[in-house]
Write a structure and sequence with these properties.
Blueprint (H helix, E strand, L loop, with lengths): L14 E5 L5 E6 H7 L3 E9 L5 E7 L10 E3 L1 E3 L7 H13 L5 E14 L2 E13 L11 E8 H10 L6 H16 L25
Parallel strand pairs: 3-8
Antiparallel strand pairs: 1-2, 3-4, 3-6, 4-5, 4-9, 7-8
């Protein structure tokens, strides 16, 4: 059955792909309408660690974003365009939002539903990608208020202590991202803040 929001002749740049619980496309919907109705749609989230695996790149969403403005979140997140693969969308948005690109590995998908204020609901089937690089971020100021490399131990502790400072999807996904990154040898940090890799420190720096 086609979605009530489905339109087939042409898509708009603001369209998101509506999906069922198995990620099968069922139609298209204008992005803000999808968020006002809380309909399930496809999304991507990119998490970037530095080369040592000890810091994560996070961004503060622009204050005038239509939802979650001013909150801190992962390197970038967005929605694949109709006909675009999640991986292609992840690379595209990384370049558009932060001014760099790097190899990305698929990590997992998860589905969540969260009230994000202003009578809007995020209901997404999110494809998560993880990368590792030491790129210099050049944030797009229309999307991002600030960007920073933060030690993973400090970040995980702060999300636990002050979740209201972070986007809903970031707070939900972070522990699983850390566990998956450890399994993928992209970071030595576990969700409980324990380092399982070589002793923490900058690459090539002697440890004391």
């Amino acid at each position: 059955m086609q979605s009530a929001f489905f339109h087939s002749r042409a898509f708009r740049l603001s369209d998101v792909v509506l999906v069922d619980e198995n990620d099968h496309p069922i139609g298209l919907c204008e992005k803000q309408l999808a968020h006002s109705r809380g309909v399930l749609h496809r999304a991507i989230s990119v998490f970037i660690f530095d080369a040592s695996g000890q810091r994560m790149l996070i961004q503060q969403r622009a204050l005038d974003k239509y939802h979650s403005g001013g909150l801190w979140t992962n390197a970038c997140c967005s929605h694949p365009a109709p006909g675009e693969t999640p991986l292609a969308a992840a690379h595209r948005r990384l370049s558009e939002e932060l001014g760099f690109d790097c190899p990305l590995e698929f990590a997992f998908t998860f589905t969540y539903r969260a009230d994000v204020g202003s009578s809007l609901v995020e209901h997404e089937l999110d494809h998560v990608f993880i990368g590792r690089c030491d790129a210099v971020a050049k944030p797009d100021s229309s999307e991002i208020a600030a960007a920073d490399w933060v030690p993973v131990r400090e970040l995980a502790a702060d999300v636990e202590r002050r979740p209201e400072r972070y986007s809903a999807w970031f707070a939900i996904a972070l522990a699983r991202v850390l566990a998956t990154a450890r399994e993928m040898d992209l970071s030595g940090w576990s969700p409980d803040g324990v380092w399982y890799g070589s002793r923490p420190g900058r690459p090539g720096q002697a440890q004391r």
